Predict the 3D structure of the following.
Amino acid sequence: MRPQILFPLFGPITTVKGVGSRVAPLLERMAGPRVRDLVFLSPQGLIRRRPGRVADLVDGEVQTLTLTIEAHQKPGRPGHPWRIRARDDTGAISLTYFKGYGAHLEERNPVGSVRVASGKVEHERLGANWQMVHPDYLVAPERATDVPPVETVYPATVGLPSRAIRRFVRSALERVPDLPDWLDPAWRRSQAWPPWREALLALHNPSGESDLAPQSPARRRLAYDELLAHQLALAQRKQMRRRVPAPRIAPGGRSLSAEAALPFRLTGAQARALADIRGDLASGGRMTRLLQGDVGAGKTVVALLAMMDVAAAGLQSVLMAPTEILARQHFDTIREPLAAQGVTAVLVTGRSKGAAREDRLADLRSGAAQVAVGTHALFQDSVEFRCLGLTIIDEQHRFGVSERGRLRSKGESAHLLAMSATPIPRTLELTLYGDLDVSNLDEKPPGRTPVATRAAPMHRLEEVVGRLRQAVAGGAQAFWICPLVAESDLVDLAAAEARYAALRAVFGERVGLVHGRLSGAEKDAVMARFVDGTLAVLVATTVVEVGVDVPAASIMVIEQAERFGLAQLHQLRGRVGRGAKSSSCVLLYDPPLSEAATRRLDILRQTDDGFLIAERDLELRGGGDPLGLAQSGFPAYRLADPVAHRDLIAVAADDARLILSRDPGLASPRGAALQILRELFDWRPDGPLSEAD
């Protein structure tokens, strides 16, 4: 139950003064349904209102003037503005209003009255006269204090200007209680951070631009509070998972024989990851681990050996992939090594039909098949296991929370191994996967051919096509990625279809096209033709299926590469260099390049280390678009910026672990304060915290 001290903050937004039935829906869309949501709505900027005289006006500045009303100039015809001529002892200015404010303005501001006007000043379009269009404030001198010298600016929406939101926020701030401090006093003093309530008030009352910066003491304090609440809930969830009993699985003879039979030695990273997984499987608690590795780092081999351990213990495993082509590829990779150790694997996809499908499902029910590989078809109620011990989800971010839960529920306390081929920096890893144990594959197996990467301007397109024709004639295959033209599938598709037609004129029927408007079956069919070599060139809109292995594909052309993010470019490049042939990636760009785009392409030419590229990507993005959070599944932080405050994420994670090691039940006075903190931000160990579930 929520602590009583938080009740004022969790009241409905309609309890804020002035928020009625018309305004409430607008505020809810902007901030949220509760008083707390208004309190957590950070200002985006500030306006300085410089007092002055007409003679000293500066074009484009926001200024405050004390004026005498001289005349009201009514519009000559519809659509023209109403102008109030006013002056001080140094000159005249027009206060300009559109949309028929006239009679009201004349009544409120009669000729001869003195008024304080504040707003942006500018020269009139024709002539050198000054004007102030729709002044922000026009008040009598006795109300001059209503005009703030520094005014915070909040996000606005249609029907709800920033100034109105500012008024509602200030009303909501009156309800903020004094809460017990959950931070370690010595830590807070060392950071020179204010108390929580003081920090919140400072957030909404900046005295200058430096107070709005993410690194200001008040903002860092509030960001740390939010990060600590999240990390605490993640750490508690991890504790809860580890207490769930699960089958104890130790490496058996068959699994060790399989490892010895591999035609290569595991890399150091693979060996460490396998040791992590085996430690989890043998612990007696349920494993919930993420295996994160760069493209081609060998995640599938580690998963194969884990499945062998599970089979040796008499239990079953399931490996789920997001597409049928990838599921079939996994099945083809692991079937023979498993069979060599007496382990039977079956493939279950949407195309599995008739008697063959029923035989496979019967083998899973009886335990005759120890491994199932498949797609979403594995979710169906007809798919039953005799004793499921391990669930492996490849490209886990491609599945919804409920989908992952449905698969895992097919085995009582089944262990979970999630896999991702998109490396992210360690500090951001904590926000996404803080409730998971993480193993990183940061080495590539020997034999992976490096991909020669070069950049070329778009005007050399014909030269690139000519070289591609020579390579295809020699048996090579190529991906051709089309640019992100607009935030429209139709516009992007039109560009891809135009490139497809142009390449068909060169390569004939050996060119295929994949785009987001194809159905899954249509996309799989085109990809299958590319995998089997029928197609020589595959044109794609923005994303080629992650993980699809086409060893003969040795060329990647990315058109208008400056439009793509660094991590996405690295993922696309990872589709080639998987066979024995030397491979190349051509980054076509439209000059002139911006400084950021130049740095992105330079980094890609200099390194193929996905973890290093992820760090550089984070540095380049800065605070403007922190990793495209909406697309990446990051938590919807209100006060913390995962990029600007990334140094605080690791500190908060360490603090949370230390707190729970000393006070697991949060029973101490500080523990009670931390429970209030967790409730304040709605981070609960039994609620949706991340994409891990």
About this structure: The first strand starts at residue 45 and ends at 48. Confidence is low (pLDDT under 50) at residues 623-633, 689-693.
